[in-house]
Each structure stands twice: as structure tokens, then as C-alpha cells.
Write a structure and sequence with these properties.
single chain, 52% helix, 4-stranded mixed sheet, Cytochrome p450, alpha+beta, 9 strands, 502 residues
Length: 502
């Protein structure tokens, strides 16, 4: 996903003055009489996640960002667990997604991520029944294992044999795009193969997310003007929407025809079933193409991007912490027969369910590098947060999940350290943290439905990689967060891979 482009040029004179006279990372953002704190935001947009952590650390976890006058861009940024619990759980009904969220994420249509009230409740109930279905979990395990073996392993073996540098971030995006598409629609787009093909469906999702992020940064009037003129990220978004609608529409048509003719792409009784098939078997929504389109796109974005981001940051952390890597390998050995400990092998669902240390390491990675680095809410009515801050319906409330993992008052003096042991109890079991402190899977009634799905996929992939390969960072490669709605790496994750077994 490309970095933010020319939007930093907005209000360039103000930014120049800010940089020349006021901008240091030690200072709090300066408030300008007409422009609010926007110049500070734009000046630090290239490192906005770390800048947010710096400011929130200095302000006790909550800070008011003033937008330019008449732009309706005031934001209250908070990582205070008491505020988050109040907003996400205790007073949930007063903090819906809100009209501003719907404007920014309009490409998601009326899907579950954009819905509130009764629409959200009915969609969540239906989605929950399908995602928690045993047949879907069988399909999840088989799909992930098959794609790891026939896709990821083949590419890794190839680059290892050739001694090539490979971008793991790109591979993981391709892997999760294929697995998510199969799980949601039943069709494999073939994005992950040795030749690393160009797939318009995947590129359209990247372009859409880029445009969504830019809408968070610039005034609504500006991006609406760009949309009207058909320029910049709004032009990309329009083209992306057309591609997404075309491909998803084709999948719906193909699946409906397949079911009508009684054709099964898999032995469904044995291997499970994809989500689109399950939805098409619901009489009330079988013919509602818009609902199906919105649902598929919501599931695709949820499944592809968050999992690939989590995999990328985790493999980087493990490759740069050899002590953690060795502990994971020792735990993997303990789950398999002795005669197989020094051999190439993949892992199954029952085996990965025993991996307590690996689970803790994944949680620790998600704490420091949450796939969705921020989210926002809007109060329906005026309210006062536990921190004492007053909010009204014209104000966005921004949660920085990235900053939250870097707060000493939440995680202690060692909050910047990668310590899987943080998640282990004295009995050697997983220590559960409240969701309003560890927000990677959301909190309250909107807690992520795919939490267990995500952990299953993550463990199946990383167990196979860590057991079978040695991953080494390319010397001099810079790792830094990208500026986007998904926490990707700005320059990818360039590595060399060596097989551990012949």
C-alpha cells in the first residue's frame, strides 16, 4: 500500500512556519488561530503513529486536537482504558459508528462494519452463527493448510534455492488474500504463486484503503471536491469501486449458478463450506445482491489485511529476537513426536492449540503493532468521559491502538519491550487482559467475531515457517510503519530465507 502522497502539501506555508519555529517532538502540537492543530498533524503525517504516542504519553492519555475553523475536524484522542471501556461497553449505545464514519467508509456500503442499531444487531447475529459453525472451522483449517503447503511453502522453497531476497509482507498479503477469498466466496484468485502475479481485485482493495485513510487527514470539503473533479485518491477510489463491484458480482453470480445446478466445488460434508454459500442458503437474503456485495467486501477487508499485517510484524519481531524464536521452536518440538522434531513438517489445528508461548508471543506482537492502528467513534448525544473531557456530536473520538501499547501507565516501564512472558501466568497459562486495555480485537458488543479464526490462521502459518525456515533480515533494510488505515510496513519486509531441513 503506497504512502500518503501530495496531501502533505496542503497548507504548506503554515507547515513551513511550524517546522521552522515550533516543531520538535518534545513539544505538544501548537494550536493556530485559524488552522487549529492541523499544521502539526500534517508536519508529522509521515510518522503520525509514533507522534500520537509521544503526545498522548505527555498528556496523560487524552488530548484534544482542534481542526481548522468551520471544518468540523475537532478530535479527542484518547488511550485511557477508563474512557475506552465507557465508550465501547458501559455507554455503548451513545457511541455508534456515526454519520462521519459512514461518509469516510462509504465503499463498505451497508455491511456490518458500517451498520448501527437493529441493522448491525441482525447482521452480527447472522455472521456469528456462520463464523462459529463447525463446518466453517473445518473449511478454515483445510483452506489455510492447503494454501500454506501449495502456495507459501512453494514460494519460500523457490527463493531459498535461488538465494533471492523476498518481501514477506507481499507474500503474506497474497497468502491472506487467497485464503480469505476462498473462505468468503469459495473461489481462489491465485494471488500467491512463484511468479507473483498482478491481481486487479487485490490492487483495488489497496487503492480503496489508501483513499479511506486520506479522508481521515484532510477536510471533508477537500476530498468531496476531489471526488467531484475525479482526481487524486478519489479517482483511485472510484476505479477501485468499479473493480470490486465487478469481481464480487461475478463471484455471486457464479456461486448462485453453481448452487442452482447442484454443483459442489468441495465435499462439503467433509471439508466445510464457504460463507457465500451459507448466505445464499438463507432464503431472506438469497436474492439481495447489494447485501451480499457489502457483506463479502466487509469480510474480505477484515480477513485479508489484519492477518497479513499481524504476520508481517510478528515475523520481524521474532527474527530480531532470537531468544523468543528459540523458545517457540522448543515449544513446537514438544507438540510433535520425537522422531519428527528435526524434519520438515506442517502443523495441524490440534497441535497449534497447545502452543501457549506462541499464543503469548502473538498477543505481544499485536499489542505493539495492532493491524488496525486507530479507530474512531462519534457521540450521539453530549457526554462526559471518565477522564472529565466533554464530548458532543460534532466531535470525533480517536483511539490510537498503536499508542496504547506504548503507554507506561497501561503496560508498565517495559512497555516498549517485546516480551511474550507478559502474557503468561505463573501456572504457565495465558494471562487474559481486559479488552479495553488490549484493543486489537475491539471491545464490548462489537468485539471481533473472527478472533479465533485469526489466531488459528496465524498459528498455522507461523508454526510452519518458524519450524521449517530461518528468516534473516536483509542488512540495511529499514522497518517503519506506513501511513495507512492498516499498519503495514512502509518499505515491506525484505528478508532471505534458508531451509532448516534438507
Amino acid at each position: 500500500m503506497a504512502s500518503l502522497g501530495y496531501y502533505e502539501v496542503l497548507l504548506a506555508l503554515a507547515c513551513f512556519l511550524f517546522l521552522a519555529f515550533f516543531a520538535t517532538t518534545a513539544r505538544l502540537p501548537r494550536k493556530w488561530s485559524l488552522l487549529g492543530t492541523l499544521p502539526s498533524l500534517l508536519c508529522h503525517v509521515h510518522r503520525i503513529h509514533d507522534r500520537s504516542a509521544e503526545v498522548l504519553s505527555q498528556t496523560g492519555g487524552t488530548f484534544l486536537l482542534r481542526g481548522p475553523r468551520f471544518t468540523n475536524m475537532d478530535m479527542l484522542s484518547t488511550v485511557d482504558p477508563a474512557n475506552i471501556h465507557y465508550i465501547m461497553s458501559a455507554n455503548f449505545l451513545n457511541f455508534p459508528k456515526g454519520p462521519q464514519f459512514l461518509k469516510i467508509f462509504d465503499i463498505l456500503g451497508d455491511g456490518i462494519f458500517n451498520s448501527d442499531a437493529e441493522s448491525w444487531r441482525s447482521q452480527r447475529k447472522l455472521a456469528q452463527s456462520m463464523v462459529n459453525n463447525r463446518r466453517f472451522h473445518r473449511y478454515l483449517a483445510k483452506t489455510t493448510q492447503d494454501k500454506v503447503e501449495t502456495g507459501l511453502i512453494k514460494v519460500l522453497d523457490h527463493v531459498s534455492k535461488q538465494g533471492q531476497v523476498v518481501d514477506l509482507q507481499d507474500l503474506f498479503q497474497r497468502l491472506t488474500f487467497d485464503t480469505t477469498c476462498i473462505l468468503v466466496t469459495g473461489y481462489d484468485p491465485g494471488c500467491l504463486s512463484i511468479d507473483l502475479p498482478y491481481v486487479p481485485f487485490s490492487k483495488a482493495m489497496d487503492d480503496a484503503e489508501e483513499a479511506i485513510f486520506s479522508r481521515h487527514i484532510i477536510p471533508e470539503s477537500v476530498w468531496k471536491l476531489q471526488r467531484w473533479l475525479g482526481i487524486g485518491h478519489e479517482k483511485k477510489l472510484r476505479n477501485a469501486r468499479a473493480t470490486l463491484d465487478h469481481v464480487i458480482g461475478k463471484y455471486i453470480s457464479m456461486k448462485r449458478d453453481q448452487l442452482r445446478r447442484g454443483i459442489k466445488s468441495n465435499d462439503e460434508e467433509e471439508d466445510g463450506v464457504d460463507l457465500l454459500t451459507s448466505y445464499l442458503n438463507e432464503e431472506e437474503i438469497e436474492s439481495d445482491d447489494k447485501f451480499l456485495r457489502d457483506t463479502i467486501l466487509n469480510f474480505m477487508i477484515a480477513g485479508r489485511d489484519t492477518t497479513s499485517s499481524a504476520l508481517t510484524w510478528f515475523l520481524w519481531l521474532v527474527s530480531t529476537h532470537p531468544d523468543v524464536e528459540e523458545k517457540i521452536r522448543e515449544e513446537l518440538k514438544s507438540t510433535i513426536p520425537t522422531e519428527e522434531t528435526n524434519k520438515w513438517r506442517l502443523f495441524g489445528v490440534e497441535e497449534i492449540s497447545k502452543l501457549v508461548y506462541l499464543h503469548g508471543a502473538l498477543c505481544e506482537s499485536l499489542r505493539l503493532y495492532p493491524p488496525v492502528p486507530f479507530q474512531h467513534k462519534e457521540p450521539h448525544k453530549p457526554d462526559t468521559l471518565p477522564s472529565g473531557h466533554r464530548v458532543d456530536p460534532n466531535m470525533k473520538i480517536l483511539f490510537s491502538l498503536y499508542a496504547m501499547g506504548r503507554m507506561k501507565f497501561i503496560w508498565g516501564e517495559d512497555c516498549m519491550e517485546f516480551k511474550p512472558e507478559r502474557w503468561l501466568s505463573e501456572r504457565g497459562t495465558i494471562k487474559h487482559e481486559p479488552s479495553y486495555k488490549f484493543l486489537a480485537f475491539n471491545a464490548g458488543p462489537r468485539t471481533c467475531l473472527g478472533r479465533e479464526v485469526a489466531f488459528t490462521q496465524l498459528k498455522l502459518v507461523v508454526a510452519s515457517m518458524i519450524h521449517n525456515y530461518q528468516v534473516q533480515m536483509v542488512k540495511g533494510h529499514t522497518v517503519a510503519p506506513n501511513v495507512s488505515i492498516i499498519l503495514y510496513m512502509k518499505h515491506g519486509l525484505k528478508v532471505k530465507v534458508t531451509k532448516r531441513w534438507s
